[in-house]
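Working notes for the structural subgroup meeting. M.R. asked for a predicted model of this chain before we commit to crystallization trials. I am recording the input and output together here so anyone reviewing the notebook later can reproduce the run.

Input as submitted:
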Amino acid sequence: MASLNVSLCFFLATFALCQAARRAAKALLPGGAYAHFAREAAGTAQLGACCLEMRMLVELGPWAGGFGPDLLLTLVFLLLLVHGATLDGASANPTVSLQRFLLAEASLPGTLLELAAQTLGVQAAGALTRLYWAWGLSDLHVLQSLMDPHCSSALRTAVPHGALLEGSCAFLLHLALLRLQGSRAIHRAPAVALLLTAVAGTAGPLTSAFLNPALAASVTFRCSGHSVLEYVQVYWLGPVTGMLLAVLLYHGRLPRLFQRNLLYSQKSKYRVPRGRPVPGPGGSQKPEEGSRGRGPW
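Returned structure, recorded in token form:
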């Protein structure tokens, strides 16, 4: 269990450092620079570092550390729960940033800045995590450091099947985010963590269930087994398509692009009552008969 303790210390140190970076950036930077760049960079770095360490435990833990699937899934759930509670509103995911843009909740410059911050954060997480592995603080880290230059692909199924899995899982994730939008973090974080844990348990053995193009590009695009174009189809086009379908199904349209509903028409729940003709001063003459073919005078 010494290797697990080292990994737990790594997770705690990652959360502490990223939280300190968020607080410092919030105190020193303007609101826009923090919200669109610093917060996203810190959140994506936190997510990327924990994902790399967790992937190492999933791949090497069962045969080198004796870790069972119940322990690993419990750890995944706890990590996702802490992520949801500490990200401070950051998406840390390009498809979530694109969803906000399509919902007209973010501007184009702000969205582009978020995407740049996410790319920077996940690259920094990869470099720092691999440096940590090189220290060899546990047997698993020594093995991972030796195996990392010759990493194997996270895609363990056919490309169309992998794209379908990533797209379907992203569809469920974004549909849940849309449904939980506006809810309190104390309710939203456990629900999203539980959903992602279930996704990791089902689709994880086949695609690693990244559901995050930036994260997938940092972790597996450099690994042998598939071409970059095949990785793009699975880990970029799949999640983006799933996000688009979720927004379209939930709203019936893409608010940034279309004003009218594309899937169904929304009828007003209030019916306008039909007005009954009011008799004029004459009493017996109907208004339509008295005014037929006549002007207002």
